Amino acid sequence: MRLADDEILGRLEKSFGLTPENSNILVVGLGTTGLSIARFLVRYHFKFKLVDSRNQPPMTAELFKEVPDVTLMSGNFDKVDFSKATHLIVSPGVALTEPTIKNVCKKGAVIVSDIDLFALSTDSPIIAITGSNGKSTVTTMLGEMGNAAGKKTAIGGNLGTAALDLLDGKADLYALELSSFQLERTSALNAAAATVLNISADHLDRHGTLASYAAEKQKIFNGNGVMVLNADDAVVVKMQTQARKPLWFSISESVGFHIAEKEGREYLAYEQDYLMPSSDVPLEGKHNLANALVALALGYAVGLELDKMCQSLKTFKGLEHRMQKVAQINGINWVNDSKATNIGACIAALAGYDEKVILLAGGDAKGADMSELRATITAKTKSVILMGKDAGLIENALGDCVPLYHADSMDNAVLCASKLVESGDTVLLSPACASLDQYKNYQQRGECFAAAVMALDVI
Question: Which among 54, 144, 359, 363 has most CB atoms closer than 10 A?
């Protein structure tokens, strides 16, 4: 729920020296986040301009409809005068290493993020979720759990609705999915409960090294409150800090929220309490048991009732393009995990299967070391069909560990898989790569996969 306007303005001035009278703000990057920032600034009568390196930024029409007199400068940043800006509000898609941004910051301009603006605008509890994989699933689970427990819960951030657009919904609780790009420019967030789900190589084309990437993720633990830690991830374990109370989850150790056996049956458990049979979690894969455990832990940390959260979990439908069963045709299971845009997500998906699968992978590897896939692919796949920009890179990394095939389109990849399968097999699209080399986004990639699979049924 949004605070009173005068209290928000007081917080913005205290934290960042932001005032409507004396601040000249440059919003860098339009799109969904940039538009939400513009709405916020208009409400509080701040002076601002927008700049976007794209000639035709998304959401331009919506911007001019809502703020017809705004100044929007599009095209190369070098053509824009950044020098008069006192503050930069930089959208996550824009790197802070851009020379024009670095130069104006050296001259004293202050970086602020939309998450900072959000955090200073509410006193309702915030649950903050980041990690390489599982963020969207856990965030969505928490939204349903919170509502089931009687707390009006709003979800957004890197998922769905921009954070600032959640403020008018009068929520009792917020669950925010946050990316490394959002966290690297955020300093005012102090979440009531926060987690880094896991760390695996991702966005190294932007962050450079795994250590730098992990350091950006770790910023989610700034402040106090509860930190929910994955006992199964060595990098996350090292993030423990004395400033926050730790709460653990694990699918391999009996700590905090964990997996336990009772009378030959597997349960989700908290300490000595058996919460619900793990078979009642309606999602495929062991990694989704970890997602369920961390969601329970985060909800528990902010006072949600365990019984009500478990009831909600039993009816959770999962997300589109995340381990989504598309069809079963002639005894073959076709599964869409297009949201697996990095190595860790693909490994987690494969690890959830006891039998070997046929894997469709490839796209834009984002600078990741694809050899990290080799051991899991050797153990968990019959064959791999590669496509996209970095298919050759993945082939070189995998070598001859399993039979490899190439396809120049999703239709041909699905057709190739249909010729390799036997009754009882699973064909899994889990690309381990971003989609932007061939598709608008991972959703479109998943939709193309589903369409190609359904076309097989007609053949």
Answer: 359
Task: Please return the burial class of 211, using the count of CB atoms within 10 Å of its CB with bins 0-12, 13-18 and 19+.
Answer: exposed
The CATH number given to 324-458 is 3.90.190.20
Fold of 5-112: Rossmann fold (3.40.50)
Closest-CA residue to 406 (of 386, 390, 423): 386
Q: What's residue 22's pLDDT?
A: 95
- Which listed residue (87, 133, 151, 158) is catalytic? 158
Q: Out of 3.30.70.3550, 3.20.20.70, 3.90.870.10, 3.40.1190.10, select the CATH number for domain 117-314.
A: 3.40.1190.10
pLDDT tens column, 304-326: 999 999 999 999 988 888 888 88
- DSSP result, 4-44: PHHHHHHHHHHHH---TTT-EEEEE--HHHHHHHHHHHHHT
For residue 203, indicate whether it is catalytic.
yes
> Tell me, what's the pLDDT at 225?
95
* Residue 10: both structure tokens together: 């007081």
Out of 87, 203, 217, 287, pick the active-site residue. Answer: 203
